[in-house]
Structure formats: C-alpha cells, structure tokens
Amino acid sequence: MHEASVAAGILDLVRQHVPAADALRVRAVRVRIGDMAGVVPDSVGFCFDAIVAGTEYGSAFLEIDRIPAHGVCGDCGRAAMIDSLPPFACRSCGSPFITVTAGDDLTVVDVELDEAPGGP
Amino acid sequence: MSVVTIERKVLEKNDSLAAANRDRFTRNGLLALNIVSSPGAGKTTLLEATIEHLKSRVRIGVVEGDVQTDIDAQRVARYGVPVVQIVTNGGCHLEAGLVAQAVDRLDLDAIDLLLIENVGNLVCPANFDLGEAMKVVVLSITEGADKPLKYPAMFRHASVLIINKVDLLPYVNAGIDEIEEYARQINPRLVIFKTAATTRLGIEEWCNWLTSRLTAGHA
C-alpha cells in the first residue's frame, strides 16, 4: 500500500503551496496519474481522504486525470500507444524495445480554492 | 474560485534524497544494489551466498529492510560484514531518506559493494528510487512463471533478474524458459542469472558478473 505514501506526498506539496490560513478554502487537488505509474488511482483517492481528514485541509478532495501510456519503438521508430497490460510490444513490428514517453506521470497539477469568506 | 498551479512530482522529495544518495555512493566509488523480490524468494540467502563468495576480495556493506525484526541483519552479520537494519514498522518499501540514515552508520570509504535488501514486496518498492546503481529482482521458481507479467513495473525498472531456487525445478510447474520469455517481454534488456542460493549453484557466475561491474567502474 504505497498509495498511502503517495497521498502523503500530495498533501506535502499542497501544504507547501497553500498557506495553512487558506487551508479551509481548498476544494479540489488535481493530480495526473499515468497508467504505468504503478499506483492504483482509486486507492490514492481513498488514502488522500483518510490523510486529510482531521487536518485543516479536510475539505479537499482529489481530482484524478488519468494519462494513457505511450511509447516509441526502439526498432521501427513508430510512436505507439501501449496497452496497460503486458506484453508491452510494438503493435507495428512486435519489438519489445519500447521507450515509454508518457504514462509514468505522478504529478500534482494544481489546487482549486474557494473564494475567501467576505472576499470579492 | 481561484487556482494555484503546482506542477510538481509527487515523489520529488524521495527522488531528490535518492539523487543525494547516488552522488554520495559515486563519490565513495561504491556500487549500490537495490535487491527486491516478493517475501521468501531468497534475497537474504542470496546475500549470504554472495558475501561468502566475494568477501575475501570485495569490501561489502549491507542495509537490511524489513517490516519487523532484525533477523536478517543477524544472519548477515555472521559473515563478518558491516550491516545496518532498517525496521519500517509496517512500511511496505524502503525510501531514500531511510537509506540515507542507515548508511550514515556505515563507513562508506571502507565499502566497495553496498547491498540494500528491500522489504519483501513485488509492488511498492518499484516506485521508490534509493540512489542505487541498479535494481536486482529475485524471482524464485516456486512463485510461478507469470510473475513478470503480473508485476511488470518491478521487472521494467530492474537491470538484473535472478531466477532462484532452480534446484526445485523437478517439483514445480514453472519452467525457466517460460520465466525468461515473460521477463524479456517486459524488459528485453534484463541480465539474467539462474541460481539455487542454498546450494550455491550459479552463485559463481553471478559473482563474476558483479565483480566485472565493480572493476568496470560502474559509474
């Protein structure tokens, strides 16, 4: 269950970018999770809810953008979308020498804040 | 409503600690291996066999990672090499910061080969760089030939595959050819060794290769 470590890492980044004074305004935290990132998106969401509960960021929920895996074939040079299941062979020539170019992503994109109470 | 842009990698803290470890290992001229497998594949026995074979020629240090107990560190310490145990207390993988603290307790100037035995787990350790030169994945034939396909991330990130417990081949359905075929589908660049660590079968080939990496400068 390294998803708990991942969720803790997400909250760390949010803390660095949103001052504690604004924590209650955090509505959504948007993350990109690649299909080959090696984490289960639903589990990350579950762990995030558990980790923020009871903190000043308790109103935040995780919005997950899934990124499909892409690669370039080392033999025929064609760009290929990779199945999320193995074998990760090139669909054009069958070569297993695929360089993954997208789908390893595990990134915090941004945070959506509600307007400050009494603000404009 | 307003938006605060972050665009930062979730594991960047671990990645930067791993980069610091890697710099440190390079400065000390040592080869660090991150040894991963499911529980019971034979990592510790492989370490014991490797240490036994190489310790007269190579200065070895060991970091042991386990969820609980220092049983593995005790086993390895019997071979007269420096060893530090990390107990993760439930954590399913080692992280770079834990390894940094552990190697603080070793004299890195007196080590050529650092063997880091990760927590037994074929999933989580794949995501966490420790600063190693390479990951070595150990797969015992009793686990079944399909494991590279079921746990592709670990095999994709590894440089070496050690197929262990080959002395049990007569008693299991998995064939070595099948394991190799599946593993190469995931990662065609894998260097593969076949061992039975308990009987020391194949240990010499593995250790010779390891020695060649040490003398090649590996950096």
Could you characterize the architecture of this molecule?
The complex is a heterodimer of chains A (120) and B (219). By secondary structure, chain A is an alpha+beta fold. Chain A has a domain at 3-69 and 101-113: hypothetical protein PF0899 fold (2-Layer Sandwich). Helices cover 22% and strands 30% of the residues of chain A. Chain A has helices at 3-17, 41-52; strands at 26-34, 61-67, 70-73, 79-81, 98-102, 106-113. In chain A, the strands form 2 sheets. In chain A, strands 2-1-6 form a 3-stranded mixed beta sheet, covered by helices on one side. Chain A has a 3-stranded antiparallel beta sheet with strand order 4-3-5, with no helix packed on it. In chain A, a hairpin with a 5-residue loop joins β3 and β4. The longest helix of chain A has 15 residues, at 3-17. Chain A is elongated. The relative contact order of chain A is 0.24. The model of chain A has no long low-confidence stretch (mean pLDDT 88). Chain B has helices at residues 12-27, 43-54, 71-77, 96-103, 147-150, 152-157, 176-186, 203-215; strands at 2-9, 31-36, 60-66, 83-87, 113-117, 134-140, 160-164, 191-194. The radius of gyration of chain B is 17 Å and the shape is globular. Chain B contains 8 helices and 8 strands; from the N terminus they run βαβαβαβαββααβαβα. In chain B, β3 (60-66), α3 and β4 (83-87) form a beta-alpha-beta unit. Chain B has a 7-stranded parallel beta sheet, with helices on both faces. In chain B, α1 packs parallel to α4 (96-103) and α2 (43-54) packs across α8 (203-215). Chain B has 219 residues and is an alpha/beta fold. Helix content of chain B is 35%, strand content 21%.
